[in-house]
Amino acid sequence: MPQLQCASLAGRPPPCAASRCPAAAAAGRGVVSRALQQRCTAAGSPTGRRQHWRRRGFAPPVAAIRGVDSFEADFELTEQQSSTLNELLHSELFHQQVVRDCKLPEGAAVEFTGVLFQPRPWTPSETKGMSAELEQRYYGKPDEYTIINVPPVFMFQAKIFQPPRLCAVYKRA
After folding, report:
1. Which tens digit of pLDDT belongs to each residue from 95-150?
2. Distance from C-alpha of 4 to C-alpha of 46, rounded to nearest angstrom
3. Do 40 and 24 form a contact (C-beta atoms < 8 A)?
């Protein structure tokens, strides 16, 4: 059986759709070698469709970004989960890491306020990822409070799987 060559390897521009590429059509039947498939793919066919659209003057379809109308951010932790997470968030070693990673001034100290919240998607009324009350109370005072994402390792150690992410508020001491 003759081995097929992709149009892009023959010096011609790659085809607009993967179905027009002879190498791609034959690949499903096991005719083309894997090396030729990889060269065709690297040359822009059959997976480089976005480049083909640009050459032809079309734009690839783009999903519109829109805000969420409502989001349920309430969650409950069991006593075991809460105690384990509080122990981890109150540790002195983690406080030092918060100071270092948040680029707080040298010698600054932080303490966990006990406030945990689930980050929210963007909405017109909640643009900072938290409720308006939390935003006004903590986010609006960057000299007094630091908001961090709870590390996934802590979430796993506390066996918290829902919600998938939490934020913690630290007060600068």
Report:
1. 999 999 999 998 899 999 999 999 988 877 788 888 889 999 999 898 999 999 99
2. 14
3. yes
Percent helix, percent strand, percent coil in the chain, to nearest 5: 35, 10, 50
Q: What is the pLDDT of residue 97?
A: 94
Tokens encoding 115: 């406030």
Long-range contact set of residues 63-71: C-beta below 8 Å, sequence gap at least 24: 67/121, 67/122, 67/123, 67/124, 68/120, 68/121, 68/122, 68/123, 69/123, 70/123, 71/120, 71/121, 71/123
Greater confidence (68 vs 144) lies with 144
Name the pairing type of β-strands 167-172 and 110-117: antiparallel
Which residues of the chain form beta strands (DSSP E)?
A: 110-117, 145-149, 167-172
74 in any annotated domain: no
pTM for the complete prediction? 0.59
CB 167 within 8 A of CB 119: yes
Q: Which amino acid appears at position 71 of this protein?
A: F
The number of residues making up the chain comes to 173
Domain coverage including residue 136: 79-172
Pull the structure tokens for residue 68. Answer: 């969420």
The count of domains in the chain is: 2
Tell whether 68 is covered by a domain.
Answer: no
Per-residue DSSP letter, 138? I
